[in-house]
Amino acid sequence: MLKLPLGKTAPRLLEDLISYDPRNSRRDVLSEDAPKFIPPKPSLPRRVSSDTCRHSFMDKPDQSIIPPLESRPGPGSTYRVASFCNDCRCHLLLKLEYRGDLPGEVPCPNQEFPLHHFRFVPHKSRCRPASANSLGEPWTEERVFECSSYVCSAVLTVVLSPPRLAPEYVTLLTDKEVITERVRRAEMDGPDRDWEDSEELVGPFEVLTRLRKYVSDAMRSLQKKKISARNKKFVTALGEECQELLEFLGFTFDEAQDVWLLPEVDVSHGPPFEDSLKVLLDDVDKELLILIAKRPWKESSKGKTAVYFHPLPSYKNLQRVLGCLDCKIILFPHLVEYILMPNAKDDKRLSSRRQIDLTQDEHPHYASLGALADFSDDLLSFAYDRQRLCDPVNAPYYFECLRTLAELRQSEPLSTKVAVLESQGEISSRDITQAYEYFRLRPDGLDMEDDYIIGTYKSRIEDAPRQEAEMRTKLRIIGQARRSEKIQYVASNTVTTYEQALTWLGANNHTADDFVVSLVTFKLGESKADERIAREAIRIIAESRNSRALKNWLKTGHMEEVDMDVGQAYSRLGIDDRTLDDDTILTTFSLRVEDEPEQLNDLRAALKAIGKEKSSYRIESFLNTGKMSDQFSPDWPVGLENIGNTCYLNSLLQFYFTVKPLRDLILNFDRFKMEISPENLEKKKVGSRKVSRKEVERAQKFAYELQKLFRNLITARASAITPDYELARLTLISSVNEEHYRRMSMASAHGPSALGEINGAPIQGPVGPPQLSSHMDVDVETPDEKPLETIHSDAGSDATLVGDVSDKNPTHDEVDFVMLDGDDNGTQAQGLIDKENNPPPGNSLENLLSQDSQDASPNENGVPSEEEQVNGAPPTLPAEATACPPDRPPPVPPRPNPSETQKPRGELEMGAQQDVTEVIANVLFQLECAIRATSFEADGEQVDQIKQLFYGKTKSYINKPGEALRVKEEFFADIKVDVAAGPRDIYSALDGAFDEQQIEVDEATARQFHSISHNPPILQIQVQRVQFDKAKNTPYKADSHLALEKVIYLDRYMESNDPILMSRRERTWQWKEELLKLERRRREALANTGKSFTQANLNVVDMLNLTKDWLEDIQAASEWGMDDGLVVEPDIPLALEKEAENAMMELQHINASIEDLQYQLSRQFSDLRQRAYRLHSVFIHRGTVSFGHYWIYIYDFQRNIWRKYNDGYVTEVVDESEVFEQEASNPATPYFLIYVQDKYKDELVDAVCREIIDE
Known about the structure:
The chain has 1255 residues and is of the alpha+beta class.
């Protein structure tokens, strides 16, 4: 959970506003949280530096909207105060708006909230460092605050801006030497005029008043005035040197008339000023008044001009708008008597503020609570309550602040409140520090594991059992501070709820019963003192789950589940007649489950006992699959049986069947089929290459096979059907790779068989880059040498379960299978575990593939055509091998040279293994080859229904210094995202595909980013999980969790002419660069350097503190004459302590900065919600890089349910967490995601399409 900025009351905010000088403040007291002050400290810290301007704000009434004294704000009310500082001339605009979007709104101040409590909103704010003024483009800081009250919708905007008159302008107007030189130059330009005493009469005072008169006339005069450029007063006061200043103020020079025209201001509309030019002139008018007032009085006495400057302070108006003016005190019920009682002023209880000693610095704890030192006890208590509610994580620190201030003020009401809170279990940071020190642990040890703290407590309690009560109190404080339920349960020495029992054991709701017992055994091995609480935890879990196995363990110490007596089983289901048929029993069971869902396990045990007594295959099948029967349903999808390593293929086919436009195209293929003619083949270009006749014929054959399957899925009178082997072959193997397999078969007489072979080359289904294995000889295998294990991976995306049948079977957790409460003999589980290793049923695909391998024969010279060599086709044979007469058979490829024979077997077999994305690409490629084009791109690329459905376009931008921006637009079929770096959400993953990154172009560094220029109706996202471990020289699967969203919005990635969107993207890239630097620095600060004798990880702070303690021990030993000759300089321990403190402060600053950046990133595009895509399908893989199992989840938008397609079984997903959450051990992970455009989802996908024909 991201940390939100803390708050402060309105008076505190006003005080910080007065103290904040953007140019000199060392800390942003407006936006940043007050730094924690934890005694003992040598002295109270100064809040602001000595050179900071403490503003004296004055009114700009013509720009302000002030509420009347007797008025109350309501929904839609807007007030503002425009001010300027009488010292530094900076400008302040404070605007308060009441949005009126809260039910039952009661704006502050009110009875419950005597003051506004404002919280900074960083993502709506715009803060820039106050650098030097750029003429016409001054810096501006705009901060937005929101009232934290749940009944007040106030939004406060604070805008600070620098003086309008930049330093160079002020020099032109006030520097005496500059003015004197200007007068002399005017005398030289006009010697015929009377310039007597001009130098004495024209000074800074005259120049400032002259310019102010021009500005004032421009704002108030209805006539358009002119100033002659040769006017004596104008020339001596301003002249040509001030031309840039005059133009900045809106003056224009008319060369024809040789006059200056005053700024054209619309004076028909009175205050408050809204026009930017009028606001500018009003600001400059106020600044000129300040500069005039600061001139010595003797300057004004030289001339005849007199200026009466009476600025009005804006402090009261600021208080009034912020709702903290003292006159508002009558709003509180207990203060109404103030007006009615003659002696009310003598009652100090009625004062909202208290008298303080202004000679003393304010204690920093006031700032931490967002309060002021002159707050009454009631207001201070209110400020504490708001901070405590807004930031519960730091509640101990706020309680420490309240307790310290109660003691400092010697306040009885505050002391009483502190005592009440302590009795309710509230703890302070002082209590936490003392608790850690009690166990000799570091108070800042947030990186310590809970188990380490609990272990320390247990070891201490064994040494001093009489202090158990005190130790438990201290442990409870630590647990409360860390918000650790686990530590608090240990401290309380009891568990009372199911959740507490799981937490105490370190388990969760999905932890299996046998693993729960393992956790208990492990805990009791650590400490026998926990036996009572351990058994209580098991009892609670057993009762909550109604687990007979756990109940049996409590009685006997064994996990075996006791079978329910068959008579008890019939009675449990409420069945009196034991002759009922199986369907009636199953129907009764289902009704009982609907009535008592919490008793599912007990009801299943009863059903299992009945099924075992009846030897009922139907009941056993139901327990294993969750299906009432194998009968088909007219409104339920049909499953696809696994024919040998085809679980991924089945998932892919099920997805394609739900895509309505594709399904209609396949079912009506003859309407879209391309006529094979020389003219059509000449124009045929798919995937940026020409397509051969043979490829088109093969593709159309594939389309007809797919049509046959789709028709069976619609009309089948069964719950599952078996795909044809020919469809599997055409789907899994591309035409290019068929020739490659044939060539490989000539080099190897052996190889594993799965789907089948093409002349000896194995078809393994969709897998990824193989693991490296032993070397192999491509020709023969020696008789005494064991065949090498073929290890396949799920690289690039995923792997189906493959491997030699003779290999050791994977474990129960390594392969997904459908099994509910297991059978005694384990036969069912074993069969399901091995289902991907079982040979194909019936007719083997080997013969079918070998018969059809002729389709991929080489040309008459024995060499594949140019088209067939694209995308990984083998290289052309040497000339001597290809120069053969056409009537002779193709030559045998030359024997590999020694370097080739030493390659790992996995590399040589890689051509015979299809990557998941290659299978998808093969399907889309064949479909495009099979149908005719609807149009053509400029480069000749075919455009058709497939491209329009699955393909989008991206624009790639490459910015290389010194060159023009390179832009390239191209098609994309999927977006590849990476999770190798760790868990992330879907947006963070997608950002990696579109964010700016550095690349090398022509040996120079350039920056590249992508945008979507055309978004596809169906968006495919590939999750790249297989990575390569360079140290081990092996691939591995990254199981990091990818948090999916039901709806994603692609607005942030779209190509757009809107400069604001691009600016927002660029800002996120900058934030991410900052975030990477901060995270890198944090890793360095927390770098684990090994383990000490306490087996605790050591970071920089640990090392500094331990070194300091060691040196202090040496110093102490030296004082007692026990030193061993080591001499420690007295300042070294103190220096180490200081370094440790600095390191810890840096770490805290880094953490706060990281949280702030993460918060800003999470909100940067939250308002862009036009390009909506809904999650439709999730391809899942469970297993490792070398084996595993696939299935797919598909969402039915018509029925609003998820279904799980697991080969022949199609079941409803009861709990959506199955799709969106991830187990801790051997997780099932998403590999391929399908999102569809939300506005077209009903036209794009349809999960159920059934039309059963009566027999």
